[in-house]
Amino acid sequence: MDARLGIAAGSTLGAEAAAEIAREGGNAVDACLAAAVMGWVAEPFFTSIGGSGFVAVRTAEGNVEIIDGNQMMPFTDPAEPGQGIKRTFLDYSDGMYTGIGGGSVGVPGILAAVRRAWERHGNADWDALFAPAIRAARDGFPFPKTSAYYLSVTFDEIWSKYPEAKALFGDRDGQPLKEGALFVQPELADSLETIAQEGPRTFYKGELAHLITDALRADGGFMEVADLEGYEAYVRLPLISECFGWRLHTNPPPASGGASLVHVLSMLESSRLNDPVERLRAIAEAQRAATMLSFEGMQDADDIAAEAEETTLSPTAVAQQPSKRGETTHSSSADIDGYACAITESAGYGAGLVIAGMLMNNTLGEEELNPLGVHGLAPGARCHTNMAPTIASREDDGSIVALGSPGATRIVGAIAQTFLRVAVDDMPLQEAVAAPRAHLDRREAGDTLCFEPGLPGSEIENFLHRPYEEIHMFFGAVQAAGVDASGRVHAAHDPRRSGGSTLI
């Protein structure tokens, strides 16, 4: 019997949670939401209920919308810029400074986005979306490889600073958990169970809201319950682009990732893509052109209507500079009824605070996301991001692909190169996701072309070269699901990280 639904998630537990919901009658949106909720349990540091995200949904009628659950600057003003932020250096991603602590936490939006997507498009019961995640948090599971790596380079600088985090992520000897250690989160299970029973109101204005704001203020923060209560997950119509015979629907401003993706693909459409060297050169130049553009003219969320009209960019459109981003994850799903969903979510690098089992973001402390300076965003403004959940479709044969990626500045390139493998090379989805990728990194020593085995990176002039000996998580982790022209469902997870995919 042919499958009716496909799901690719950032973890095998996420894929299993989605499959459970699908077997109970859930559609592709339900499945993707269940995977996203599981991410809060199974992918520590890469996402959290205390983080942000965007949900792209394609309905059975072919309409696409983006639900904006990005982090927000509190309406409450800090006593002074930098209140409650502790600056720390991380030996991560070529070395960087970031801010942690109570003042670094932006108003979390991913829970509100999940709820709004479920209200508008879900078929399963609300509490059913949480049941697999609650079980996993209570029973425990082996600590993931990717989380163990991130913890190994951030434990001393972030998580060991706070007793709750140190107890959760440290072993009996006070050292960071290693890959494979049993990871149990009973407090998070309790919090998720409360939200499953009472809905998000407990997080945004009830018991959990008070626990969150009390803990943030105790650590020098300034967020109030009114800031949480005032949060809204906006529904935006997508940025649309026609390229390579496909129509792309992706994340619109004030997020910058979708505009950068459209800009890169627009440049590549006129390039010689049948020659491997010329293709790689074109990819590098397109990435350089996109990242050289500044944030000037970027609209603030307050200047864009929540129910915005759809935006179409021409090949000459100007994209905003894609910002860096902390750790992130992605899930995609599609079903034979025409539904597709793509969710990208993040908790930044983490504020260090774990409240009632819930890890808090540090978006207001991420220096690369705050070009106006620490606490420089207007009250209620959404933070910069290059998350770009995307849904591509072909009107001529009915093909649909939902895709996206984590990876900070590598998000746009990972999506663009995977899409090229599908649209230009006609690769099967799994091969397209696993195919070697490149990234142009802006470094002090000069523009550096990073590339995986199988790409002719050393033949590209005018760049420094950084070859990798094997495929690497540096290049993102595309999760993709779709329905092909024959009506068959496909799903593919990226071998670069600890993902999972399945067909139901």
Q: Outline of this structure?
A:
With 504 residues, this protein is of the alpha+beta class.
Please characterize this protein's 3D structure:
It is a single chain. By secondary structure, the protein is α+β, with helices and mostly antiparallel strands. It has 14 helices and 23 strands. It has one domain (1-504). It is 30% helix and 21% strand. The strands form 6 sheets. It has a 7-stranded antiparallel β-sheet with strand order 8-3-2-13-12-1-23, covered by helices on one side. The chain has a 7-stranded mixed β-sheet with strand order 11-9-10-16-17-21-22. A hairpin with a 5-residue loop joins strand 21 (479-483) and strand 22. 57% of the residues are buried. The model is unreliable at 294-325 (pLDDT under 50).
Task: Give me the Rg, rounded.
Answer: 21 Å
Shape: globular
Give the termini distance in whole angstroms.
10 Å
Largest sheet: 7 strands, antiparallel
Number of domains: 1
List the helices and strands and how they pair.
Layout: E1 5-9, H1 12-23, H2 28-42, E2 52-58, E3 64-69, E4 86-90, E5 96-100, H3 110-121, H4 126-139, E6 141-142, H5 145-154, H6 163-169, E7 182-183, H7 186-198, H8 201-204, H9 207-218, H10 225-229, E8 234-236, E9 239-243, E10 246-250, H11 257-268, H12 276-292, E11 311-312, E12 327-335, E13 340-348, E14 354-355, E15 358-359, E16 390-393, E17 400-404, H13 411-423, H14 429-434, E18 438-443, E19 446-451, E20 464-467, E21 479-483, E22 489-492, E23 500-503
Parallel strand pairs: 9-11, 19-20
Antiparallel strand pairs: 1-12, 1-23, 2-3, 2-13, 3-8, 4-5, 6-7, 9-10, 10-16, 12-13, 14-15, 16-17, 17-21, 18-19, 21-22
